[in-house]
Specification:
The structure is a homodimer. By secondary structure, the first copy, chain A, is of the alpha/beta class. Chain A has two domains: 331 residues, TIM Barrel (Alpha-Beta Barrel), CATH 3.20.20.30; 75 residues, no CATH class. Chain A contains 15 helices and 14 strands. In chain A, strands 1-2-3-4-9-10-11-14 form an eight-stranded parallel barrel, surrounded by five helices. The radius of gyration of chain A is 23 Å and the shape is globular.
């Protein structure tokens, strides 16, 4: 058996980067609505042999400040199509809400994309809890129990619709005048409490059969759902211990659902900042933190249990402060914050390390990022990484051309795609239609 | 004022053609699920300077016989994206049902496509009455009154969402650290009986502001809706008289809605068959009719009031039969059927003229098709034509390279696009957001 290697994914959001990335001189703010910029980043990721591009989604206004760009402009189906047509091997995982989208539409769009991409699609099936998103659909938000029960039904119906055109239904025999075997294109007639569909869907199998399944989340509800259906789980974890704990919880959920836990790949997020020297990298990330520095210093105080304010920014924490500081176990970022503070940086510099961000932030030359990933991977904290460039304009290339070759040299990451489909590259078994329960005890 | 010219559109369905087109030797049945084939036809249409590509939609199983290909495989958003990225000037009009799709999704997908295409999108807003489509969404079909009341609300909400990011909201001023003027990105908060949405949509204006509006239908409900909102109406008409009558009904509806009737373009359908000689063209179309010849001969009998059956196929109608025949005023195709029968063709040959089809069928060398269109256009029967190639594999090129140059030589059709956007090329006024009622008395 060949040595196990990590998987790598990246997310394209608004094509700009972290909230203040658009202010940087190398960024053209017009990329906000420029699909060609997103395609360029996708092609870079494919050059780096990444497993997949992830497209998030948010069904409501995402811009909260005039100084931020909105999180996303362009509708993900359109973006996925553009990427599918401009690339050959990289996968594309689209987020579609089970709360507000209908299974018939989800099934049709994603299977179309799977056919068009040559078997490279995945579906990140998530529930939506944002009241503003519900309001866009003229609804209120249901409780979590209901949302996850609905998600379960929607996923089953979507997968059944994917299988409703059987794999050998397409004959295309001119002599026999039979385009299809209609007995193999049958309604699914699924009626649930929250969703129903008749089917069938008139779409033949893709090169990988049907899209792979992803889920993003960390709650017990999330892990239970992912344990039943997901091939990929995207997590938000800040320490190796927390990641291992979540990965084990997920694997137990898969086992409980009668599946082989190795069939679910656990992805840990990372938002690297890469530059030639540690100082340049810290300055680059610092510029992206600086506009929020006042809010962040107060937040940092709460994280480590000290009353911090703007006056504390330009000095390191004193010995007395460091001795009084306590990491807040409710926010795993506090451990990293305290670790950086103990290195003697000023409070401003601690914050420039992006200790308060959505994912861990290795900052420095490519080796620093590769080391972070290798350490986590070898510690069993993740099967792969979900990488968000800090500033897409040059951050995607910096990762692909700087970090990926190091991981390849270390034997941690592929040097060529294993196959043509997303299933091939992730090592995920064939599935067509709804998986039979407990088929893999 | 320059001489008025016709507009031209074409539809891409399954990329094959009429139901039996896939049996022809020049057709690769695999084109059924091949987006590159659709893109090739779109590029041909752009070479012909056509106004737009029309993408239909049907939210249920469309294949009724193993000998037919289904009407459509690939989801239209995906197809529209592929065409938008492969072309520069031609418009793209996508069908999206107001009955089963939510206004927030419709608005988001179509405005994204409008931005990505550089202002070349249109929305064919139609209601859906197929019970199998309703069943795919776990619903039953509402009555027509309800469906059209819902359509009216959905269109208003979609257009309001399109306008919810005001045209000058995007500032992108790095020095002022203002990405947008958030006061100009406001919720619409529309609540109707059948649809509601809060908004806003975080998508800036496209090069034409927002998509143009199309509608397909002939009922009084359809004309009333189109009169209020449509820039384009796609009709199904078989004679010049019927077309004039429908066009006038539409224009009255526009006037009643306080609009200038010249602002709605009335498109008449046509399914030409083009070959070097009349006999070759008739043989080509005949092959597409022949598998249904038995059903068609019975149907022809009902159309012209004669008891016809298979035994009548290979002789012309006798003088006695022709004298007894009566066109059925309930089906305008009967007039054309009788006209062809009187030319002395055998009954089989009458049917090979495609007298029983979805649209008029000029059959012959390119001149025959150009003559049909010119005659209708000059008679005030249409502002444009909606052309369905009989067999896409070579029928699209035959139209673009054979018929279009004749229309251009005759001064009936443009030789170059007027502008960059669909609005420019159709001569449709700027609109952003919901049109103010009675703004053009």
């Amino acid at each position: 058996m060949s040595r196990k290697q990590m998987h790598l994914a990246t997310i394209l959001s608004n094509g700009l980067g972290l909230p203040y990335a658009w202010l940087e001189p190398q960024v053209d703010p017009a990329d906000y609505a420029n699909i060609h910029a997103l395609v360029r980043y996708a092609k870079a990721a494919e050059r780096g042999k990444l497993d997949f591009i992830f497209l998030g989604d948010f069904l409501a206004q995402s811009q909260r400040s005039e100084a931020h760009a909105p999180g996303q402009t362009l509708e993900p189906t359109v973006v996925a199509t553009a990427i599918a047509l401009a690339t050959d091997r990289i996968g594309i995982v689209n987020t579609v809400s089970t709360t507000f989208e209908k299974p018939y539409n989800i099934a049709r769009v994603l299977k179309t994309l799977d056919v068009v991409s040559g078997g490279r699609m995945g579906w990140n099936a998530i529930t939506t809890s944002a009241p503003h998103a519900a309001a866009n659909f003229g609804r209120a938000i249901d409780d979590r129990e209901t949302r996850y029960a609905q998600a379960d039904e929607v996923i089953q119906i979507v997968q059944a619709l994917w299988g409703s055109w059987q794999e050998d239904a397409w004959i295309a025999d001119k002599n026999a005048r039979r385009f299809t075997d209609l007995s193999k294109i049958a309604p699914v007639n699924l009626r649930g409490t929250y969703a129903s569909s008749r089917g069938p869907l008139e779409i033949p199998p893709s090169k990988q059969g049907q899209p792979v399944m992803a889920h993003a989340g960390a709650s017990p509800h999330s892990h239970a759902l992912a344990g039943r259906y997901a091939d990929i789980l995207i997590s938000e974890v800040f320490t190796i211990d927390e990641a291992r704990h979540q990965r084990e919880s997920l694997r137990r959920a898969a086992t409980a659902a009668g599946r082989n836990p190795d069939d679910i790949k656990f992805f840990a997020g990372v938002i690297p900042t890469i530059a030639a020297t540690p100082a340049e990298a810290l300055a680059r990330r610092g510029r992206l933190v600086e506009p929020d520095i006042i809010q962040q210093v107060h937040y940092l105080g709460r994280l480590i249990g000290l009353p911090l304010g703007p006056d504390d920014l330009d000095t390191p924490l004193s010995a007395a402060q460091l001795s009084a500081a306590r990491a807040n176990p409710g926010d795993p970022r506090s451990f990293r914050a305290l670790e950086v503070a103990r290195e003697g940086w000023t409070v401003r510099e601690v914050l420039h390390h992006a200790v308060i961000d959505f994912h861990p932030a290795p900052i420095g030359p490519p080796e620093v990022v590769a080391d972070h990933m290798q350490e986590w991977f070898e510690a069993g904290a993740a099967d792969g990484f979900w990488v968000t460039p800090d500033i897409y304009a040059d951050g995607m290339d910096a990762f692909v051309d700087g970090v990926v070759p190091l991981l390849q040299q270390r034997g941690q990451f592929r040097t060529e795609y294993e196959g043509e489909t997303l299933r091939d590259n992730l090592g995920i078994d064939h599935q067509y239609g709804l998986r039979q329960p407990h088929s893999k005890p």
